[in-house]
Structure prediction request, 345 residues.
Amino acid sequence: MQASPLPDWARSLGMPPHSGRFREFPEAFRVEEQMAFTPEGEGEHLWLHCEKRNLSTAQLIRHLSHQLAVAPRDIGVSGLKDHTALTRQWVSVALTGRATPVDLPELVEMDGVRLLSFGRHPRKLRRGVHRANRFALYVTGEAVTQGSLEARWQELVAHGVPNYFGPQRFGHQGSNLVRARALMARGWKKKQDRDGFLLSSARSFLFNQVLSERVRQESWASGLEGDVFNLEGSASQFAGEALDDELRTRLASLDIHPTGPMWGRGDGGVSGEALALECHVAEQDAVLARGIEDSGAAAMRRPLRLCLQSPALERDGEGLWLDFSLARGGFATAVLRELFQHPAL
Prediction:
């Protein structure tokens, strides 16, 4: 088997002492998109609240495109949901000048797809407009039977989780990253990466590299001089040149989080120690960093820490149910890799 090009990024709690199992069947990995609004009831777009099982979001889009006779480009989603899972998400379909089909459930539903509700709306569903994702994950194995998982879970609830991009961002065995490196070395071209997946993979990799270094230095949650901070639960960010007692108190209470770079042109407002660390990490992968800059992507910031929202743990037979919400862009695998060992984490 070919080795993955992805490093084993540092964990905030160190290597878990025991192994575990997850996603043993689709219902053991449940994800529900949480929106801040619902369809208004009228408009050119038909919004569908769908439940899918053992199906990717791309497969769902192709199915709806065929059944409702619209082009895939006229279908909108806020996020891509896991294949081997039971997931719920909204999908919009442009039906300009067309009424909602009277036989809509029969058109939409098939093996692995249920229509939960629907409504008209004036606008297409855009990427990244959902507020959060709610997860319900059933885990089993030695980490559960030996009790180490529950103690580590409480640590994550109290102190947060390193906000790593999950392995799915990099393709099977890191294949997207391999392709991204080759493309950046030649010079990124839109026609060779129309969906931007390779560019996204490259930027996500550098972010994870910076975060891993911050975890090793134990500054991922406590901050560095020159950090840009994110306000919990919002997109608000601000630069904090001096790491004073007020900032340290807010960091300790999970009110704010240090951020890391989504690499691109510009520095995103970071300075001092934080900027020096990020530049040092980027220098270790100069071809990738320069390729991203040459693509024209603008530098952005992403929180280094995730909070588990409304967390709950419940024992069920030989396993445990972990229930929690993560802000948009957070990966459940970032939580699981802190709790137990598993080859996919």
Summary: The mean pLDDT is 95. DSSP finds ten helices and 14 strands in the chain.
